[in-house]
Amino acid sequence: MYVAPATQFLAKIWGVPFYSYMAGQPLTYQGFGADGIALSADGTDLYFGAVGKRYLYSIPTARLRADGDFSEALAQASVVSHGQKGVSDGYETDSNGFIYHGDAEQEAVSFYNPVNGTDQVFVRDPRINWIDTMSTGSDGYLYFTSNQLCFGPLNWPGTDNRVRPFALFRAKLPNNGTKVNLV
């Protein structure tokens, strides 16, 4: 339910509709499900979402660790929706407690602030499209790549529409944020 893609989900990356092109099959909608998780800065919640759905969810990690009668049903009942977050793949957390995520349709990285429940753009650049992975550094920067997955030959059979050079970005975290170390 939470990790399945939305029916007829259609993202637009750099203004291009992102359909699924399978050899010998009719054009269809992308079916990306769950992909991307991040622990809250204090480790009490696990944030997740589906690429093919624009919503961010969380579940208390205590519910995931529970092993008793009805634990699975209780875990499912404890999932919280935090509203729309855009089209995203990778997630990351910083010491501010912000949950960063790609925002492909906005050419951006955005973040969810669990303190006030808002989602806002963190950095925008016209070179940004498909952010798959990101990492916060102990130097106070968020590092991420824009891999143009949506324009590769898996989505455009026989054609590689990616435009080189690819890019590795870094952006200074707000409020002197840094990497979270939970161990």
Q: How would you describe this structure in keywords?
A:
6-blade_b-propeller_TolB-like; 38% strand; Major royal jelly protein; secreted; 4-stranded antiparallel sheet; MRJP/yellow-related; mainly beta; Neuraminidase; 183 residues; globular
Description:
The chain has 2 helices and 14 strands, in the order ββββββααββββββββ. With 183 residues, the protein is mostly beta strands. The protein has one domain: Neuraminidase, CATH 2.120.10.30. The strands form 4 sheets. The protein has a 4-stranded antiparallel sheet with strand order 4-5-6-7. The mean pLDDT is 89.
Report the order of strands and helices.
EEEEEEHHEEEEEEEE
Gap from first CA to last CA: 32 Å
CATH topology: Neuraminidase
Q: DSSP helix count? A: 2
Number of strands: 14
Please state roughly what percent of the residues sit in beta strands, choosing from under 5%, 5-15%, 15-25%, 25-35%, 35-45% or over 45%.
35-45%
Strand numbers in spatial order across the main sheet:
4-5-6-7
CATH-level-4 superfamily name:
TolB, C-terminal domain
Describe the main β-sheet briefly. 4 strands, antiparallel
The top-level CATH class is: Mainly Beta
Mean pLDDT: 89
Low-confidence runs:
none
Helix content: under 10%
Q: Mind telling me which CATH architecture this is?
A: 6 Propeller
As for the number of domains, it is 1
Keywords: Secreted
Pfam families: MRJP
GO cellular component, one term: extracellular region
Family: Belongs to the major royal jelly protein family.
Topology:
Elements: E1 11-13, E2 16-20, E3 28-29, E4 34-39, E5 45-50, E6 55-60, H1 61-65, H2 71-77, E7 80-84, E8 91-93, E9 99-103, E10 108-113, E11 118-124, E12 134-136, E13 141-146, E14 167-172
Antiparallel strand pairs: 1-2, 2-3, 4-5, 5-6, 6-7, 8-9, 9-10, 10-11, 12-13, 13-14
